[in-house]
Amino acid sequence: MSLNVYLLKKILNENHQYFDISDIEYSSQKLPISIYYCHYKKHNLEDMNGYDVEVLEKQLWCLYENLVGIKHPHDLWNQVEQFNLKQQDQLIDEIARDSKYNNLYFADISMFAKHYFPYAAQVIIKRGYPNVDDVIPELFVWLQDINWPGSYEIYKFLCSLPKEAILKYFENSVSMADMDLDWSWLYYLQQIMCHFKFTERDFKDKKL
Fold this sequence. Notes:
Blueprint: H1 3-12, H2 31-41, H3 50-68, H4 73-76, H5 85-97, H6 104-107, H7 117-127, H8 136-141, H9 151-159, H10 163-179, H11 183-196
Helix pairs in contact: 2-3, 5-7, 7-9, 10-11
């Protein structure tokens, strides 16, 4: 058994029933599952070398790129910190116009390390409303911690949208935050509510 197959089986453990490891190279749909578990578990494996898992994650992303023609999100920002602000803005402009990257690619913050959040936020903001209407639910998740890089910019962006665009997703976010007793998230959702002057009449669930 190759090291990579061993690592992948180890990482997936009880979740390996989702697919047969042996045919991973032939299915782009199965790769994101394995990449997710690599990303999630590479810092939580007591009996494995975290570096090996990180290498495996990168190799899986390269395989995914070859299959579907989309780069690992982190590769988009390769060396971006070395650019000056004008060059960074030009790069983000190019990425925002690139139609092969869908909105979820940038709105789902689980895809990025935190220091890449501001760049993803800028892409969403540059694409603008109504082009990013499909990921407004994911943008509410950015408000779970306003200290995350780019989170305040997303908050301001949400406040700039039409009330009706926000309202159809807002109640579900409040419901999830309430279920999780996430007081920080509820606080910033409350700020959205105050900004748009939502009232009880705007909610389907009056208990909320």
